[in-house]
Design a protein that fits this description.
The chain has about 525 residues and is mainly alpha-helical. The protein is built from 17 helices and 6 strands.
């Protein structure tokens, strides 16, 4: 038996916020009902709605407007109706493995409704369960007192034998299907199984304005009398015990579904955190490589300008020869070191292309888009209570937590804009000729201005100091011309990794919190035992 108080405490401390209030509200609303709640569930088109219509009409009740009968998937919400002293809930049919959102939501609503019921009725077609077997088997192990889990094999007039022609064979087929069902789910003899034809030969079709005389011709074999007697035998005196067991079943299901969802979120956010961490590591590596290239380039300037100027100050050098020599030297220097920058740029580009091609990048990019969207992360899905409904809000709570941690959409939106700019600018800075030519002109002009004193500049100390000053100024001008090349690459590195670096710390923290929450939730399971379905006396 799970410790319900401990489960509630754990729900109140989940990463991103508390779910306990929502679950308590749902449970309190159910617990206040003073009539037994009976829930019909199963796949769509098993006949749940037509079965409820028959029960309502036979008991003299009105068929509500929301109840529709069709071969299509028509029930999309959990709805209540009263039959005798019971509240009967009709649920959407679940669709195992469905990919469309509506079918998935219907399945969640159906599974959630089973968590808040006193008696569960599994409705199956004569073909019995196939794809949904595992889903139903999971429900059976959630703790049902003897007599509170029923099975109905419905629409049995479609099983292949016409009872109007051969009633004995019809009943023999009915007995065989009951045995198959008990074997399929390993059901004991105390689990009620009913075989019914709630609308033989589709006599009523989709109509809802009916009287009980509609099916008088079939009452001898349609099986509805036994089912109606079972409803009449549901005693309110058993309600306290059923509600106690339902509480265990409900909070165990809440714990199970929430831990399952947290595990899924942990897996997703671990992958996203790894992408973020890889961006941090790459930024460090790329910036280190850039710094190394920059230092090597600048170190090679030491003495280069001085040597060029020393040769240029020779008396035999003319202005044109001087500029040509300076430009040739600078071209060689720029070419050598720009090639190294281009190799780094290419490495960055190829690495990002490979990273974006990996499946993990899609999840990270989706998270960045969500955080930058500006949408309200506090919105919770509408619908009935139960674990399967509320686990959806775990994801929105975690998004809200990340938004608060990163003050989105500011950093994230800015990162996307800068990344786009970097993609355009990478490799688009000025070329070698454009950089070297004005620099060569400038240095030539500086040297030429000192032309009258070339001889003196090579002799006395003051002149040598002046010469060094000119060398230093020209070297700095060369560095200033080189710096935009380096800055462009550095900006690209920062922009390409901004989203990853911005989210790294908060994702690591979130993963740690999810790990702790999952471990604590799993410990709650280990500290008790989950009751199984009673099938024997």
């Amino acid at each position: 038996m799970v410790d319900i108080d401990a489960v509630r405490d754990w729900l109140g401390r989940l990463p991103g916020g508390s779910l306990v209030g929502q679950y308590v509200d749902d449970w309190d609303a159910f617990e206040k009902l003073d009539s037994p709640v009976v829930t019909l569930f199963g796949s769509y088109d098993t006949g749940k709605s037509s079965l409820l219509r028959r029960l309502l009409v036979d008991s003299g009740g009105d068929v509500p407007g929301w109840l529709t009968i069709s071969a299509r998937h028509e029930t999309f919400e959990v709805n209540d109706a009263e039959v005798g002293g019971c509240i009967i809930r009709d649920t959407p049919g679940f669709a195992v493995g469905a990919s469309d959102i509506r079918a998935q939501n219907n399945s969640r609503r159906a599974m959630a409704a089973v968590g808040l019921t006193d008696v569960g009725i599994v409705v199956l077609t004569p073909q019995l369960a196939t794809a949904e077997r595992d889903v139903l088997q999971k429900l059976f192990t959630r703790g049902w007192p003897v007599g509170t889990m029923w099975f109905v094999i419905s629409r049995f007039d479609e099983a292949g034998v016409d009872p109007e022609c051969d009633l004995a064979e019809y009943r023999e087929l009915s007995d065989r299907k009951v045995r198959e069902l008990r074997e399929l789910f390993e059901l004991g003899d105390r689990i009620p199984v009913f075989v019914v034809s709630q609308d033989p030969f589709q006599t009523a079709g989709p109509d809802t304005d009916l009287s009980r005389e509609t099916w008088d011709d079939f009452r001898g074999w349609d099986g509805m009398r036994d089912l109606a007697d079972a409803f009449e035998a549901v005693s309110p005196s058993a309600l306290p015990g059923w509600r106690h067991t339902a509480g265990q079943r409900y909070w165990t299901a809440v714990l199970d579904e929430t831990v399952t969802e947290l595990r899924r979120q942990l897996s997703d956010y671990t992958a996203r955190a790894e992408v973020a961490a890889s961006g941090v590591a790459r930024r460090d590596v790329w910036e280190s490589e850039l710094d190394t290239l920059d230092r090597a380039a600048q170190a090679s300037l030491d003495g280069l300008i001085e040597e060029v100027m020393r040769r240029s100050w020779e008396p035999s050098s003319g202005a044109d020869e001087l500029q040509a020599e300076i430009q040739r030297t600078l071209d060689e220097w720029f070419t050598k070191h720009e090639v190294r920058l281009q190799r780094l740029q290419q490495s960055i580009r190829k690495t990002k292309e490979r990273e974006r091609a990996r499946p993990s990048w899609a999840g990270f990019a989706s998270l960045v888009a969500t955080l930058g969207s500006g949408e309200d992360a506090s919105t919770t899905p509408a619908g009935p209570g139960g674990a399967a409904e509320h686990v959806e809000t775990v994801g929105t709570m975690l998004i809200g937590m990340l938004k608060a941690a990163n003050n989105a959409p500011g950093p994230i939106a800015g990162g996307k804009a800068s990344s786009a700019k970097a993609a355009r600018d990478l490799g688009g800075h000025i070329g070698i000729a454009e950089a070297a030519l004005p620099l060569a002109v400038y240095i030539t002009k500086v040297v030429d201005e000192q032309g009258a004193d070339r001889a003196r500049l090579n002799q006395d100390k003051a002149a040598a100091e002046k010469r060094q000053q000119v060398v230093t100024e020209c070297t700095q001008r060369t560095r200033d011309t080189w710096q935009p090349f380096v800055d462009d690459v550095r900006e690209a590195i920062v922009a390409e990794t901004r989203d990853q670096v911005d989210l790294d710390a908060s994702l690591r923290q979130l993963v740690e919190q999810l790990q702790e929450a999952v471990a604590e939730g799993e410990a709650l399971f280990r500290s008790g035992t989950v009751p199984l379905l009673e099938t024997e006396a």
